[in-house]
Write a structure and sequence with these properties.
alpha+beta; 13-stranded mixed sheet; 5 helices; 13 strands; 42% strand
Length: 250
């Protein structure tokens, strides 16, 4: 179970951001075109704050409940992920710098060398070494999610709702093309009526032909505001490839 929980941080670690524009164009564009415009605008923002909640069903049928909170720039970010899987609960702190992921958690603290508190992973090499599908994992982070909104088709307007105090228009659509070996349910998207930013995305994904195993809701805010990211020093970190920690490719 510990190894499976550790793998859950990778999908949430390849982070990204948002962007902005006037909602007057909402009256001129079709729902599909408007959601695509909002996704592109949000992706262009220099930074964004994200709140995450959802669940992932791991092999064996165990459901892991997740919640997270953090701030991200175009390439870097930091966040805290809380999880609960049956009787096991805890948290993971993560910092992303390009393709480098730094994680800190009681889950693997005992496996680190004395004096080290952070584990460092190269996301691309780590995923390749473990035979993981990086594309599938990356699809769960904000940047990839916003990119997928640009692929939505047959978008319908559902109504007007408030998201974290912001007046939004709720849309629902489906991916025009599904990823090979995977399937995704409808994407629900809430776009700010005044600023045209994507404020919430809700979706479910899973292996093709099976019940969706991942359900996520992402709330986005504070587009373009300053984000402070502190990358752990070399003195604090241990490289995952040199350690034998289950689930992290030692």
């Amino acid at each position: 179970m510990r190894a499976l929980l550790l793998l859950l941080i990778v999908p949430l670690a390849l982070v990204a951001c948002g962007g902005g524009k006037s909602s007057s164009s909402e009256l001129k564009l079709s729902p599909t075109a408007y959601v695509k415009q909002a996704a592109q605008k949000s992706s262009a923002a220099s930074s964004v704050h994200m709140k995450l909640k959802g669940s992932v069903t791991v092999p064996g049928g165990q459901s892991v409940v997740l919640s997270g909170d953090g701030g991200f720039t175009q390439h870097d970010g930091s966040f805290r992920l809380d999880f609960n899987a049956g009787g096991l609960s805890g948290s993971i702190d993560a910092v992303i710098q390009g393709t480098q992921l730094y994680v800190r958690s009681p889950l693997f603290a005992d496996g680190l060398p004395k004096g080290k508190t952070w584990l460092k992973l190269d996301l691309s090499k780590q995923a390749s070494a473990q035979g993981l599908d990086l594309t599938k994992l990356a699809a769960q982070d904000p940047a990839q999610t916003l990119a997928r909104l640009s692929q939505l088709g047959n978008v319908k307007e559902i109504g007007t709702e408030q998201v974290d105090g912001v007046e939004t228009t709720h849309y629902r659509g489906r991916l025009a093309r599904q990823t090979a070996g995977a399937t995704a349910g409808p994407f629900d998207v809430w776009v700010g009526k005044d600023d045209g930013y994507v404020r919430r995305v809700q979706f479910a994904t899973g292996a093709a032909g099976s019940t969706p195993s991942t359900h996520l809701t992402m709330d986005l805010s504070d587009f373009g505001k300053d984000v402070i990211i502190t990358v752990p020093s070399a003195a604090e970190t241990a490289d995952a490839k040199s350690l034998n920690i289950p689930g992290l490719g030692g």
